[in-house]
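Entry 14. Structure prediction run on the chain below.
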Amino acid sequence: MQKTKEMFLSKSYYKSNFNLALPIILSSVGQSFTQMIDTIMVGQLGATSLAAVAFAGSVSMNALVFGMGIAMALTPLAGQSFARGEHRKISMLFQNSLALNSIIALIIISLLFLIFPLLGHFGQPQDVIDECRPYYLIISISFLPSLIFLTFKQLLEGLGNTKNAMIITISVNIINIILNYILIYGKFGSPALGVTGAGIATLIAKTIMPIAFFIFIYFNKRYRKYLLFFSWNKMTFHTQKIILRLGMPISGQMFLEFASLLFITLMMGWVGKTTLAGYHIVITIVGTTFLIASGLSSATTVLISHEFGRNNIGEIKKYFKSGYHLTLFTMTIFGLLLIFLGKPIASIFSPDQEVVEIATIFFIVAGFFQLIDGSQVLFLGALRGINDVAKPMKYAFISYTLIAIPFAYICGFVLNLGSWSIFAGFSAGLLTAAILYYNRFRLKIKELSQGQTN
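Output returned:
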């Protein structure tokens, strides 16, 4: 009985983590839900359209994550400054992050446009390539408003406010779904644009989001000061260097993870478009469960960053533990749901029975690695809270580049175990990442504890 009490913390730690994580989760799931609706709506057009969205999304997202990682650096930096009451410093970080992310977004869009003529060289079916081209271009343009919105979101998360991003995201997602219905199928006098319509709807929604966030901050007395403190003399390379020093390794880690998923997507396309379509259904759902774990991780990052700013190592340990317990509980439930309800879920997305059967097998594989996936992202969030990002990027290279991709290829194409084994091979990389991140966190906490006693 005593051991059980020691294993679990006071309810206040779980409550703090959950209350902070819930709006992040709802915001992320709201966004993911919109993507699911996109997938369901596009799926009704056929396997080719579904595969086209999967391919274009995989290629473009690998570029976006680079900018996302740099934007995410604002959260722990703002969180640590907030814990110390350094409001002008927060404003300076926000201003420089906003400028930096806008420039990076334009660079990413330019690179995606340069890659555009090369899409036909990725080994995908020609009809898939033809259908994805306009969608790819439109989605690429949407990355500018996406990164501006993310800058606002990461600022408020660092200050401990996760609710307003949720409200904006969910509200705009409803608009996105309505626009999808009108533009994909040609309702209310609109031409039926198919996959291109889904892209246009996304671009409009992404543009509304940062505008809504700016209006909220400008008219909110509590947060307006972070805009009013803006000035040209605070736009410094030194501050941007601080953001980049933390953000670049986060970007590198995220890029390596998403790039490995791109290779998995390409491998699925090599098998065939029905396999790619089935995989896209599963990765859409698994992406949602990952976002829930990521929400818990983000909350852990914020809470740990506040305690790190106060140099309170004991509280860091407790918030880490509470976040991990919540992650284990949540991902266990999702793992069981994916294993036992995979087929009915897949049937919602596609009327093609071959696609459904392939997706059902993939769901079983995905169900078994939910705990691993949730653990690695939680450990990573804890490391970001204490500004430890360089080593995790190296660990990501080992886990995803040297283990996940080779394992997936060997299982699927050398041993010919089937397309399901490509997905299973990827989980070896997740397991490696989880072990390395956890050991790194333990080491850093030990070093910080020793630093306090010396």
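Residues 13-453 form one domain.
Filed with the rest of this week's runs.
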